[in-house]
Amino acid sequence: MNCFYILNKQFFLKIFLLFSLLILLVSSGFSQADGEKIFKQTCAACHRIDGQKLVGPGLKDVAKRVPQPADEWLFKWIKNNTALQKSGDEYATKIFNDNGKVPMLVFEGVLSDDAIKSVIEYIKNPPAPPTEPATGQNAVTQAPPPQTEGIGLTYVLLIITVLLIVMVSLLGVIVKYLQDSINAAKGLPPSSPFSVLKLAARHKRLVALIGIFFIISVARALYIGLMNVGVYDNYQPVQPILFSHQTHAGKLAINCVYCHSGAEKGKVAGVPSANVCMNCHKAISSGPLTGTAEIAKIYDAVGWDPAKAAYTKPEKSIKWIRVHALPDFAYFNHSQHVVVGKQQCITCHGDMAILDVAKQNVPLTMSWCINCHRKTEVPGMNSNPYYADLHTKLKEKYKDQPLTVEKIGGLDCIKCHY
Ligand code: HEC
Ligand code: HEC
Ligand code: HEC
Ligand code: HEC
Ligand code: HEC
Ligand code: HEC
Q: φ, ψ for residue 259 (rounded to 5)?
C-alpha cells in the first residue's frame, strides 16, 4: 500500500481543477463589489451600514430583526416598501411609524432583482468598518467611479494560480523523494521524475479546457476595462443634496427647462443655482421624504435664515456631482438638438421624472450619436429662410428618401471633433 496516497498526482490535479472552478465563479461576477457600489450610490444617502440612524435606521444586523426568512422580507421591502405596508405587514408599518412616518424610496423599476439581491448580500455581510457618513458637502468629490475592479481581481487570481503551480511542483518533488525511499527499501527502481508538464501531457483535454478558460477570462477583463475608459453608463452618484427629479419633475411637474434653462439657449443645459431653488423653497422648508434636513442644505448654501426670513449668512456653492460628461474632444450642443433638432430630453436622458437620484441612462459613445443621426429625420427648417432653401434643395436631391441628420452632414467627423 502506498501510504502517500493522499499526496498522489491525481490529488494535485483535483485541487488544481477545483481552484480553476473557483476562479471561474469569482470572475463571472459573484463578487460583492456590485452590492457595495449600489449601496453607496442609492442607499447611503439615507442609511449607514453600522448601527447609527441617518434618515433611515442603521442597517447593522438588520437581517436578524426583520421578519424571517429575512432575505424574502428584505427583497419585498427594498423593491416596494409601500406595497409591503399596504399588504398588511405589521413590521413594515411599525418601522414606518417608528421613523417619523418618513417613507423609504420605492426601488421597483430602478434596481433590477439581481441588483436588489446583491445589495441584500452586502447589508448582511458588510466588509470592514464604515467610513465617514455620506452626508454634508465635504463628503463628495469629482472623482469618476472606478471601473477597473475586474482587472485587478483577475491579476490577483492569476498570481495565485502561478504560485499554486509552483507549490504543486515542489510537492511533486517531495513525493518523488519519499516514493523513491520506499522503492529503495523494497528494492524497486526509482520512480519517474514528477513534473507538472508530464502531468499536463497526460491530461491534454483538461489542460486545454483550463487554458481556454484563462484566456477568455483575461481577455474579458481587459475588454471590459478598455471599453469602459471614459464611458460611465448608469453612473448615478450620491449628490450633496438629496434632490429628487421624481418629486420636482414628476409629482410637481415642473418643466425641465425651468431649471435647466441653458438647454434651449446654448451648448450646456446647466444645473440650476440655489437661487432658483429658493424661488419655491423660501416658502417650503420641509418635504415628505426627508423632512427639513435636505432643504436646510439649500438655506445653508444661500445663507438664508428661515427664522428671520432673511439672507444673513455668507453664500456657499452646492457641489453637485456631474453625471454626464463627454470627453473634451467631442462637441455636443443642447440647443442644436432641443430647439433646432426638436429632440425631447427623454430621448437622450431617459425618464428623469421617475428618478430620485439623477443617473446617466445612455452610453454617450460615438456609436450612440451616430446611430441616432442615421435614423432620425431632420425636422422642418422652414422657420429660417436660409435653412428652408437648403431644405428644399436637399429634399429634391434625395427625392422620397427620409432626410436624416446623416444627409445634412451629421456623420462628418469635423461636426463633432475639431
Ligand atoms: C430617502 C431615504 C432612503 C433611501 C434612499 C433608502 N432608504 Fe431604506 N429606509 C428609509 C427609512 C426612512 C426607513 C424606515 C422605514 C420607514 O420609515 O418607511 C428605511 C428602512 C429600511 C430597512 C428596514 C430597516 C429596519 O430597521 O428594519 C431596510 C432593510 C432598508 N431601508 C434598506 C434600504 C436599501 C437596501 C436601500 C437602497 C437600495 C435603501 N433602504 C434606501 C429611508 C431610505
Ligand atoms: C427643480 C429643478 C429641476 C427640474 C424641474 C429638473 N431638474 Fe434636472 N437637475 C436638477 C438639479 C439640481 C440637478 C443636479 C443634481 C442631480 O444631479 O440630481 C439636475 C441634474 C440633471 C441631470 C444630470 C446632470 C449631469 O450632471 O449630468 C439631467 C440629465 C437632468 N437633470 C435632466 C432633467 C430633465 C430631463 C428634467 C425634466 C424631466 C429635469 N432635469 C428637471 C434640477 C432640476
Ligand atoms: C440629443 C440628445 C440630448 C437631448 C435631446 C438632451 N440632452 Fe442633455 N445631454 C446630452 C449629452 C450628450 C450630454 C453630455 C454633454 C457634455 O458632456 O458635454 C448632456 C448633458 C446634460 C446635462 C448636464 C451637462 C450640462 O450640459 O449641463 C443636463 C443638465 C442635461 N443634459 C439636461 C437636458 C435637458 C433638460 C434636456 C431637454 C430640454 C436635454 N438635456 C436634452 C444629450 C442630450
Ligand atoms: C417650482 C418650485 C420648486 C423649485 C424651483 C424647487 N423645489 Fe424643491 N420642492 C418643491 C415642493 C413643492 C416640495 C415639496 C414636495 C412635496 O411636498 O411633495 C419640494 C421638496 C424638496 C425637497 C424635499 C424632498 C422631500 O420629499 O422630502 C428637497 C430636498 C428639494 N425640494 C430640493 C430642491 C432643490 C435642491 C431645488 C433647486 C435645484 C429645488 N428643490 C427647487 C418645490 C420646488
Ligand atoms: C436622439 C437623436 C440624436 C442623438 C442621440 C444625437 N443627435 Fe446630434 N442631431 C440630432 C438631430 C435631429 C440633429 C439635426 C439638428 C438640425 O436640424 O440641425 C442633430 C445634429 C447634430 C449636429 C449638427 C450636424 C449638422 O450637420 O449641422 C451635431 C454636431 C451633433 N448633432 C452632435 C451630436 C453628438 C456629439 C451626439 C452624441 C453625444 C449626438 N449629436 C447625439 C439627433 C441626435
Ligand atoms: C455625431 C457626432 C460624431 C461624429 C460625426 C464623429 N464622432 Fe468620433 N466621437 C464622438 C463622441 C461623442 C466620442 C466620445 C465617445 C466616448 O467617450 O466613448 C467620439 C470618440 C471618437 C474617438 C475616440 C475613440 C473612442 O471611441 O472613444 C475617435 C478616434 C473618433 N471619435 C474619431 C472619429 C472619426 C474619424 C469620425 C469621422 C468618420 C468621427 N469620430 C465622427 C462623436 C462623433
A: -95, -40
Ligand with an atom nearest the CA of residue 67: 1
Query: Which whole-number Å values give the CA distances from 170 to 158, 196, 356, in the listed order?
Result: 19, 10, 58
323 touches 239 (CB < 8 A):
no
- Atom 19 of ligand 6, residue of closest alpha carbon: 366
pTM of the predicted model as reported, rounded to 2 decimal places: 0.62
Residue of 203, 202, 214, 82 whose CA lies nearest to 161: 214
* CA-closest residue to ligand 4 atom 40: 277
Please tell me the residue having the least CA distance from ligand 5 atom 35. Answer: 332
Q: How far is the CA of 341 from the centre of ligand 2 (A)?
A: 21
10 Å Cβ neighbour count for 219? Answer: 11
User: Cβ(262) to ligand 4 under 6 A?
Assistant: no
How would residue 294 be classed by pLDDT, with cut points 50, 70 and 90? very high
Between the alpha carbon of residue 201 and those of residues 100, 194, 204, 206, the distances in Å are 69, 12, 5, 10
Distance CA 67, CA 105 (A): 20
CB of 147 sitting under 6 A from ligand 4: no
Determine whether the shortest distance from the Cβ of 356 to ligand 4 is under 6 A.
no
Q: Output the pLDDT for position 148.
A: 39
CATH class of 33-126: mainly alpha
Whose atoms come closest to the Cα of 417: which ligand? 6
Going from the Cα of 260 to the center of ligand 2, the distance in angstroms, rounded, reads 7
> How many angstroms does the Cα of residue 331 sit away from the middle of ligand 3?
12
Residue identifier of the C-alpha nearest atom 16 of ligand 5: 341
Residue 332 CA: which ligand is closest?
A: 5
Domain ranges across the chain = 5-27+149-227, 33-126
Q: In whole angstroms, give the CA distance from residue 351 to residue 339.
A: 19
| Higher pLDDT, residue 12 or 31 | 12
- Residue 335: the pLDDT is 92
State pLDDT tens for residues 237-262: 888 999 999 988 888 888 899 899 89
Ligand 3 pocket member 269 (CB < 6 A): yes
Local confidence band at 129 (pLDDT 50, 70, 90 cut-offs):
low
